Amino acid sequence: MSADQPLLEVENLTTTFSTDNGTLTAVDGIDFSVDTGETVCIVGESGSGKTVATESITRIINTPPGEIEGTVRYKGRDLLSLPESELRQIRGNDIAHIFQNPQEAMNHCYTVGWQIVEALQIHQDVSDDEARARAVDLMDRVGIANASSRFDDYPHEFSGGQKQRVMIAMALVGDPDLLIADEPTTALDVTVQAQILKLLDDLQEEFEMGILFVTHDLGVVAEIADRIVVMYAGKVMERGGVLDIFDHPGHPYTQQLLECLPEFGGTGGGISGTLPDPYDPPEGCRFAPRCEYAEEACRTGEQPEEVEVAPGQRVSCVHYGPGGNPSIVRNDEFGPIDGDGTAPTDGESEVGPADD
Amino acid sequence: MPRRNIEDRDDSRHIDRREWLSALGLAGAVTLAGCSGNGGGGSGSGGGNGSDGMNGSEGGSGSGGNQLELPDFPKFGVDPLYGRDVAHTLAERAFEQSEYDYSFDGDTMVNPDGDQVEINIYHSTGQETSQLTANFIAQELGQNLGINVIVEAIDGTRFNNEYWTAEPQGGTDTVDGEEVTWENPTPTNPGPQSVTSNQAWDMSIVFGLNTYPLNPLTNSAFFDGATAFYNPVGYYPQFDAQELFDQAQQASSVEELQQAFVDIFENIAYEQPYITLLFSDDLVGYNPELEGPIENFSNGWDLPAWYEGEPEVSGSYDTVTSARFTTLNPLFNTENGAGTAIARALDQGYTFDENQDVFPLLYDMSTEDGEVWTFDVRENLQFSEPYGQVTAEDFVYLIQELHQADWAPTAASTSWDGVTVEQTGEFQFEATLESPNILWPKTYDPLLYPIPKDLLQPYVEEEDVQGLEQDEELLELQFAGNLGAFELTAWNRGSGTEYTRNDEYYLRDIDEGPDLFSEGPYFESASISVVREQASRLGALRTGEADAAAIPPEQYESYQENENVDVLQVPTPYNTIISVNQRANGWSAGPGNLFQLVPFRQAMAAAISKQDLIQGVYRGLASPHFTWQPRWSQFYPSTDE
Amino acid sequence: MGFGRYVSARVLWAAVVSLIIVTVTFLLLSAAPNPAVRRAATQAALQGGDPAEAAERVRELRGLDEPLYVRYMDFLRNVYTLDWGWSVSTSMPVTEAVTNALYYTAQYSIPWTILTIILGPLVGVYSAANMYSWKDHAATGFAFFGYAIPNFFFGIILLLIFGVWLEWIPVIYKPEVPVFSVQNAIQLTLPVFVLVTGSIGAVMRVSRNESAEFQNADFMKTAKAKGVSPLRAYAYHVMRPTLVPLSTTLVGQLLALFLGASLLVEVVFGIPGLGRLTYNALIQQDTNLVLGTTLFFTFVAVIGNLIEDLVFTVLDPRISYDDR
Amino acid sequence: MATEKSERFDQVDWNDLSRSGRFDLSVNSLGMLLTTIPLALLGVYDWQFLGERTPTFEFIGLEQNLETLDFFFIFTLFLAFWYLVLPLYQNPRMTRYYWKEFRRNRPAVVSLGWLGVVFVGGIVGPLILNAPQQDLLIAYQPPVFTSVADTTPATCVGEVMNGRCYGTWQHPLGTTGGGKDVFTMIVYGMTISMQIGFITTTIVATIGITFGTLSAYSGGWVDEIMMRFVDIILSFPTFLMFLLILYIYGAGLGMFIVVFSLFAWGGTARYIRSKSLSISEEEFIKASRISGASTYQVIRGHVVPNAASSIITQLTLLIPGFLLAEAQLAFLGVGDSTVPSWGQLIATGRSDLSFAPWIVLAPGIVLFLTILAFNFLGDALLDALNPEAEAENG
Question: Second label for D207, Cα 20 to 30 Å away, from A260, B371, C67, D94?
Fold first, then answer.
């Protein structure tokens, strides 16, 4: 792997689903990349295609009905053109996933140990005893007390946070280089959230992983992200470093997202209107129907080309493009109240060994 | 214990008569004949055929109107004694006799309240022929007598238990002007007409009865005066039946007997104690390769001489039947089907050949005067080890210690009542009857199974009925030695019996009978499969899996055309009758039981077209039934044929 | 409550239920008139004996002269000593009659049960995996067909077609052929097919619906993300949770058919099994045998329900013994 | 009162009505009462003053005679009308919603159509068609458009060509061995099936609801014992019991219905109990303790409406079982062969299957379709009324 080559590079990724009612376009030609040791957050409302995008990377979504186009290069290999069997080698081994709802993400019929061992034994030829030892080790590492005795417990005997820890342990069995975390903290309560985030942060250093983190919670983003990709209705609206975007959100959508956060002086209210119909997306900018700055130009043609507004920060908005006037939307006074742009929460809480 | 089955329509029709017939020692007689579900039981001469009887229009004088005069031997239900007018005339005679005010309102028969007369008729449930017949009767009685008949189905066993029989009570009543006492009431004749069954019923075609064409004296059980042994319907004869039967008993030749019976049968034809309808033939389909079956109900008596193709030992003789066997214990079996199954492996004393003459098997019987009978037992009969040779002692022991003993309810008990038996030699014994009977063998009474004395002795000493019933050697016929054409190898309680050829069969060494006996039987093995579904039995016949099976009348033609099957029409002595309940719970249509009146029963008989019934339901494969004897019997009273 | 205590409580309850059911049967049968008594009276009358005395004799012989409670206590004792008396309709001890019949019933029940247990969930899961494809529609259609078509009706028609018209299979069941022989396999094909058709429908429907739910469950995504192959995913992650609700349907369905439709199938195909034995015992009012077979069927039903409960608790770790 | 109610007829909200807790004489109950009283009077009249076989409607010159079962059947029809059909009419919004949900399931719509045919046929058919009459002359006529060898029928009603007898529209589905018209018998069989279906489910629902609520309301050891009792009922080898009881005690249609009902209410009772318990947590206490409403009203007003959809679904799935059991028993010969049910028709025709297959096939297929339709319908109801309910009845 050459030094300048990103760990993961996604280009023009398009995912559609054919259903009885027509073709649904969930992800519509997006690009992004993740480097080793970096945390990239994909941000957007629910239904904006974040999850589908991440699940398209290793083709976890069912095809059919789904259909994935574009290229996904992982360490230079195009995952989308790999045969299923080779891709299976990568899943769980090089690229690991953790999901939103640990309760549902684990099979209630098997012990947590069994499920960790299963992941391990698929990729590595290890004996049952050895696998068990490794699994206990991992459970210990992710902060589960009495790991060896809890190995034989069933998921329903764990609390939510513990389950997510188990999920993380399961993800770590193959010493992955890329961890795709799909809203891993959404289902957890706030204190537990912080512990999990801290854990992920620690593990990222230890395992030198790239993390692709999906969330709609900008508070979380602020805490962990290096870079942000803002998605709306299957398209990328804006991307850039976390500080840049929090300080100078370029796209009206990003701005409105941030406005929702009380910490950022927002109203805490939602964005008016609803997501466009994914079967029949509007012409022009996807956000135009809900955008207070929308003009006629916004409503025609394709989604505008991304324009670099600051180093590393790109926005897809007519107003930044050729002939546009960024000042219509630019509002430099926008930013976190405390101004440092880092963690809105205190961030001091230790990652406890357990939260039960 | 005796059992009945109610499984198949054909067998079920025979339920009760078999049951009690067998009590008279009959079951064994038909066993050799049996090749099919129907077995084809009974005896008789020549095949009666439906159309013969149809022409019998002699005798009827008046054709309707009050002038109607009945001949000595009236034939109701065929012209001229059929139709609305005849029936109305007869019914009106009954109304006059009745103390209640029944009448016709136009075509409708009304009771004293002015409501239409409504009565019910029971038929066997699940039996199509029975149901069709019942509906036909209902239509005819409706049309010709204006009676509304409700058709109801009932399970044969249930009918037997709750309707047909009753708790014996006895009593006295005036019958034909005389005081009669029921001294020995039975469930089938529990007492005078006032003694009734649990459940009320009007008419029934659930059961038919035997007519005993070989020895009609047996019919005294039905009609011997009011206190006959078997009189579930509460019939009181209006003629002196008892005396006539006594006279017949005295007959010393067949001719005298025939003479004696003319009166009896004419009276029965006149009084219609049961409304006689028809005799249906058993239809048996055979593998056309088979040599031997005949259209005669001694069909099967010479089974050891039957063969397939060439007369050499080969193949298997497989038949299907509908009824499971309750027991194969020869002492207790009363079922026709099981009798057939026993007969494959164990012969009885004698059988009847195709001329209805006695053919000696185990023993020959002879008499001078009809009173003392000498039994000569063959000397080449062997039980299985350790029982050795069959001697007269075995038979005498069996009769005296079992059949005549009070404690053992064997199937043949009644046959030996009042008979004195004495051993007169190693292979000879004598039986002395209470009164002479030149036709004694034809009553089936002296039929015996050979049972080793040594086998019976322990049970006799203990008077152990249960032990006897459950004895495995008896149940599995393990003692049969050379006494049967085949050896029973398996009796699967659910699916029938299997046999292998008995190489030692004693019949090979006898002088009488067909020459073919000397090498018989001509099958390596035999089997009787119990198959409940008629469709399956017929299917097996069609595909050749079975060599013989009974065929229902509605399929007679299609099987006749089928080249894989030969259909034989085997006459039976079993009749189809309407039993009309003359007891106190018998007439639900109003006061006064009209069934008790002879003219009313005549009216009913005249209202039902026998010809239409035979054509419609039986496809012509039955013959009309006028008195208590089939037309082909030598005791049939008609003189003009 | 521990597993051991749970099981023993269940078994105890099962015993109580069996006892009650058999008692009800006993009472029902005692209320019916006994035809043997009447027949004996007829017989005696024929012999010129006293019918009443003969009837009394039979009652005595069969123990019917005892008061009901004495007979009941006798009966209970016999139930537990496995001496179920003599069956008058088959002329053998009841236990032997039941064992013999069971031999034939087992010959078609075992393949039928195995096929249902294996094929039902497999086809159901397969159907779910190919949801809304023609394969799914075909499988679902078949399930509904088998579920709705009366077994006996289907049986007689198949027998007519394959036995009588095409002559592919024998019309008459031959009990004497060896159990493991081609002949036996051929003659059992139709009964097993008819029964499997009848039982598989419900099993398929439930497993299809349940597994449809599970195959879209998050844990399937987890499994896929772990690199689990689709086959393994279905085998372990879909099948296993599907078995939990399925176990109820499966046992229930098999039991219902075993106790009902198998009787008709035995009648149609002429198999001398338990169903026919029971039926014949019933119509011949062979009290001992009816009680024996009822006892057996009740035993099977109760054991079946017990197994269902136990399997349920074993299969679904979330259920604790105290809940039930 | 009736007028007042009827003014706001289409605004009546069923749930509101049910929850009001005191609607002793709603339109439904009033209607029920007004229709049941004449029925009951007619029943008493028929029972007390008319002979067993005198036609009930003789006084107006009709030949129709009603038997006990018919009275029960009409009663259940009234019940179904006033408490099932009318509420749907009274609450068009809900009806429309259900219909929308239901309509998506096309097999279920077809099934409903078929059951409609059976229902209407079963009620109207016997009034239009004369009872099937035996006519031996026309036995074994083939169905229309088919032919059989002319030796099969006694005489051929239709054309005979090349030795084959062709069916006619006179007997669209052919005739039986007794010359009864198969089509007419199937129509009469619809009545029987509907009677079995309606009366049995009514009894099952009545016993089940009473037992279930009683059990839930009593609580404690009474509840325990009652539920154990249900356990036992559910453990019976049902088919064996049917056979036993029907064989020993006779197998008329009425007996069938009673025996079926006796062994079928367990599941309903169990369900109602659990439903009542969950409702009692909220409603029993509030409603019965505070407002002093009677237990009956709580059950009537809260438990039943809430559980109604599930009960209906459960009962829908029970009916095919009854029809099948009837057919099976008829096939075994345990049944009243004068009852013109489909099962009896199959049983009588089964021996003729090889040469007159229509006698078995026609009722067999009708039975099959009806069972299928009930299953489809039950499934659809399960989805439409109660999306979260799982297929427990499989």
Answer: D94
With a CB-CB cutoff of 8 Å, which residues 244-263 of chain C face chain D?
245, 248-249, 252-253, 256, 259-261, 263
Residue A300 is part of which domain span? 227-355
Q: Are residues A147 and A270 in the same domain?
A: no
pLDDT single digits (tens) D295-350: 666 666 666 666 777 777 778 888 888 898 888 888 887 777 778 889 888 888 88
Q: Which residues contact A285 (CB under 8 A, 6 or more apart)?
A: A291, A294, A298, A299, A303, A304, A316, A317, A318
Our CA-based measurement puts residue C144 at a distance from the nearest CA of chain B, in whole angstroms, of 28
Subunit contact B128:D154, Cβ cutoff 8 A? no
**Nearest residue of chain C to residue A85 (CA atoms):** C229
**A241 shares its domain with A327:** yes
The span from the CA of D231 to the CA of C319, in Å, is 20
The answer, for C205 touching chain D at a CB cutoff of 8 Å, is yes
For chain C, what are the domain ranges?
A: 2-87, 94-315
Cα-based distances in Å from B597 to B66, B464, B587: 17, 49, 12
Mutation for testing the B interface, residue in D249, D334, D351 having most B CBs under 10 Å: D351
| Count of structural domains within chain A | 2
Q: How far is the C-alpha of C234 from the C-alpha of C210, rounded, in Å?
A: 12
Q: Is residue A3 part of a domain?
A: no
For residue B467, list chain C residues with Cβ-Cβ distance below 8 A. none
For the stretch D134-148, pLDDT in tens is: 887 788 888 888 888
Minimum-distance CB partner of D332 among C20, C145, C267: C267
Cβ–Cβ < 8 Å for C156, B535: yes
Question: Which chains lie within 8 Å of chain D at 3 or more CB pairs, if any?
Answer: B, C
Model confidence pLDDT, tens digit, residues A194-233 = 888 888 888 888 888 888 888 888 888 888 888 888 888 8
D104-130+184-393 folds as MetI-like fold (1.10.3720)
**Nearest CA-CA distance, residue D372 and chain C, Å:** 5
User: What pLDDT band is residue A341 in, cutting at 50, 70 and 90?
Assistant: very low
d(CA C169, CA C248): 35
- Please give the CATH number for the structural domain made up of B348-475: 3.90.76.10
The predicted-structure confidence for B290-315, as pLDDT tens digits, reads as follows: 888 888 777 888 888 899 888 888 88
A2 found inside a domain: no
| Beta-strand pair B171-175/B525-530 | unpaired
> How close B472 gets to chain C, by Cα (Å)?
9
Q: How far is A71 from chain C (nearest CA, A)?
A: 19
- When CB atoms are compared, the residue of D354, D364, D394 closest to C153 is D364
Residues A84 and A100 in one domain: yes
Q: Could you say which of B168, B494, B498 has the minimum Cβ distance to residue C176?
A: B498
Q: Quick one: A294 and A208 in the same domain?
A: no
> Quick check: B26 pLDDT over 80?
no
Q: A69: which strand partners? A: A14
Q: How far apart are the first and last CA of chain D?
A: 45
* Torsion sign, CA atoms A124, A126, A128, A131: negative
pLDDT digits (tens, 9 = 90+) for B469-518: 889 999 999 999 999 999 999 998 888 899 999 998 999 888 888 888 88
Residue range C94-315 in CATH 1.10.3720.10: yes
